[in-house]
Amino acid sequence: MNTQTSVLLLIALAVPAYAYADDIAMDDQSQILTGAGEPASSRYFQPPQESELPDNAYGKLVQEGRAIFVDTKNRAPEYVGNGLACANCHLEQGRKANSAPLWAAYTMYPAYRKKNNKVNSYAERLQGCFQFSMNGKAPEADGPVIAALSAYSYWLATGAPTGQELPGRAYPEVPKPEGGYDLAKGEKVYAAQCAVCHGQNGEGQKSGEDYVFPPLWGADSFNWGAGMHRINTAAAFIKENMPLGKGGSLSDEDAWHVAAFMNSHERPQDPRLIDGSVEKTRDKYHANDGVNLYGEIVNGTMLGKGL
Fold first, then answer.
1. Percentage of the chain exceeding pLDDT 90
2. Terminus-to-terminus CA distance in the chain, angstroms?
3. How far is CA 239 from CA 185, 192, 213, in A?
4. String of b and e for 16-48 (b: at least 16 CB within 10 Å)?
5. What is the CB neighbour count within 10 angstroms for residue 11?
6. Cα separation, 4 vs 216, whole angstroms
7. What tens digit of pLDDT does each residue of 246-279 get?
8. pLDDT recorded at residue 181
9. Element (H or E) spanning 19, and its range?
């Protein structure tokens, strides 16, 4: 779907979100623009294999980047505030086409982004994922975590054209159902197709202290600023990739219904919270940010208050 994280971040647990909201550089957390995907039968760019890595300092940095990418919480714990890893949203270690692969993202930066009205570096893009999808704080742009992840991304993009939007870059767009999404139908789809891995209450599944399957809502999931909080983005990810190993098996409508059900639950606050107000934050950041339920009343409760 934050990735992800992707996805996908509290700057300091002891400080209220509104105290540091103004310090966050990333106003726009669109994980990926939908619409760039191609049918699964198309030919995609093929990143290099690990066996091709040189046995030198560069190869070691790439390996460290891959380790952070797949085990983010343990390899970069000071920057992660939930139970997710980058590989939860960017599948197959960031290689999978139509799952926001790193090889298709790296070559598109620096890039101007309309929503925050600035040219973003690739490092800034990675920092945003930690702040929102990982519900943590941004690593230093010139620090070892960003250096390793950038090296891993650069290596996966070996031979890819620069500045060209490659097929498979996006989560392919899924049209919204004519009658809109239905939370009750989504709950049924979730129970039948998702709960076996992600738990009856979206809590995920652990082996020891680590998640085998990530939590989809609740305190240990991505926050309200992550791109995956948008129902349209989540529907695109789900349609293409879920259930795991059976991507494409859900109908477009069911993908929308279950994405809406997932995102109709509370999760950590958007760290850009303005003056402690969900309403103000929605007006500035969410009102025109795809289809989402931040600040909306669902089952008698306003979503977006955070956990």
1. 82
2. 21
3. 16, 15, 18
4. ebbebbeebebebbebbebebbbeeeeebbebe
5. 18
6. 12
7. 999 999 999 999 999 999 999 999 999 999 999 9
8. 97
9. helix 17-20
